[in-house]
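User: Quick sanity check before I run a bigger batch. Here is a single chain. Can you write out its predicted 3D structure?
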Amino acid sequence: MSIVLIDSGLGGLTVLHEALQELPHERYLFFADNGNVPYGTKPKETVRSCILSAVQELVTEETKALLIACNTATSIAIADLRRLYSIPVIGMEPAVKPAVELNRNTGKRSLVMATPLALKETKYHDLVNRLGDTEHIDSQPMPGLVTLAEELEFDGPRVQAYLQETIGDRDWQEYGTAVLGCTHFSFFRTAFAKFLPPHIELIDGNRGTVRRLQELIRGREEAPDSAAAAGPVVEFRHSGSDPAYRERMEQALDWYRRDRERAGRPRA
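Assistant: Done. Predicted structure follows.
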């Protein structure tokens, strides 16, 4: 049986990386809907249709769990998916709660960076309102990072110029945490660390999401076959017509693995 992960493109590979660390003997099917990337600037009904169609093709009786490794898709389609499927369905949400908790005793602000569509959705606003600290939470759409990630450009002059353009005018002494609220954005941890003052904590929801996956599949484990026992098994699929995209997925996952090894494991 396999765990299916789905994203609009390469971003969900950062969640897959975490899953491979925590659940190394599972089988994984990673699907990138790169024929429709990006989700974050599209109408919500278009995104919902993309997700429901893709999941219908991917989920079979051999699927152990479904992980929507995309904050935007989660905000749009998670309720529909949980109604339609009896397997565990796990989604992403910006890690606003741990960011706010880290700032609780300092009076510092949190900046939540995500796609325009995710930041507009009721799900995000409900999350922020539940925390009861809206005056210390700011939001910043950064769709350009998705484009850069899909081009495998995770650092360098273009990335730094985009960060300067979008968040360069903020008074970072007012902030204590910055939330990477799109799975594509986790590719830019090193770039953010170069750009931001050292006191800023970068937080994403990848580890917390995989912990939730672990909880929900507990008791569903079966004896690993010989291939799984030797290490994780990952199948890559994508929707676009470019046959080289699978190689790009593998390159991105390898880059992220090496980048995280150099930097150490991230918070949250």
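Residues 2-92+206-263 form a domain with the Rossmann fold fold (CATH 3.40.50.1860).

User: Great, the batch can go ahead then.
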